[in-house]
Here is the input.
Amino acid sequence: MGIWSTASELAAKTPAERNRYVDFLRAVSILVVVIGHWLIATAWYVDGELTPGHLLKSHPQHQWLTWLFQVMPIFFIVGGYSNAVSLESANRKGQGYADWLVARLHRLVTPLLVLFVAWGVVAGIMTLLDVRPIVVQFTSQAALIPTWFLAIYIMLVLFAPATYRIWRRYGFASFWAFVVAAALIDGLFFAADIRWPAWSNYFWVWLGVHQLGFAWRDGRIGGPVRSLLWAVLGFGVLYSLIHFGPYPLAMVGSPDEGLSNTLPPKITLMALGVFQFGLLLSLEAPMRQALNGLRLWTGTVLINSMIMTVYLWHITVMVIFGSVLYLSSGWGFHIEPGTVAWWWTRPVWVGVLIVLLVPVALVLSVLERRGRRPDAPVPSAVRQIAGAIMICLGIALLAMWGFGGGPLPWLDVGAFVLVIIGASISGLLRVFR
Here is the structure.
């Protein structure tokens, strides 16, 4: 049976009460991130040497595109909605925190382990072959950049039962509390030039955005008109922060020297999330009706069945394809990024990468779809939390510096070991047995 037929059968069995728009937004947001990464990564020959670059740095006039391609707030909002649904289901079944957590971690961490092990092996082989350390570090770091998202999202999952209880008790006050916390941190960053607390905004910003998913689940956002008012509010705040405040225009990366909306996160991402969320939620009714159609819903089910694999491997596929082009006399890298000719070649570039990514996703997503054995023991909550924190720390270090990089020798090996030990403690290595 083909994968489309399998997805179609699953789609036909979908309960009527399921909000299909949540799954649709999850699929679309990840695909937008994938295409965005493929577009902003540039490489071309300068004085006879292949020079990697970043479109937003070399051509800042395109930074406005990040308002469209920075859709991570949508993914965190969708995550909040999904976590609320799963927590409600666990409560109905009488499941405890450990039972609930092990299922969430299984789906998130399993495809991640495959990527880390693969790049650990590749980095080791490249080192043995005397490949220049800078090449090992650059390629591995580029391939592992997408994993930063999982580092923070896993932490949000650990906190989800507590933040959901806070939401049920305090409602929107919990969202605004995170907004205030993030704003105060930004105030220290810009007004007092105290920058180290800004890293805590990885929690305050994304926890606040995550709360909006709870609000959506509880029907607290309102109808289309009220949703559009949220969008107007978000856009107005975002515009004001950038044009009258100290924040840069780009919502992705660090194109402005020493200043970024994402590294570490700023309240601009919360405003962007409110803007995008309000706009998309105003379309919920017609989109839910459209998703009742089997073909569109089947496509959504199919993408969601391999969504983490697609997200985690899309840059690896680009790195491998770019390496092949480089070894083939640099075909395609002689066109200056940002020029008209370069933009005309982007559909071909994206199309080829899609063709290369599909078989990778089909093969590796089997692990993503494999559920835990019903008889598998459930590690204690303490073990799962400790293991997840170790995994997140290892992810953060490797996403920041890659293999062969970092301020300390053997930091990459230590980070890799942290991920493996964390997965073992959490009982997540059992899936490979």
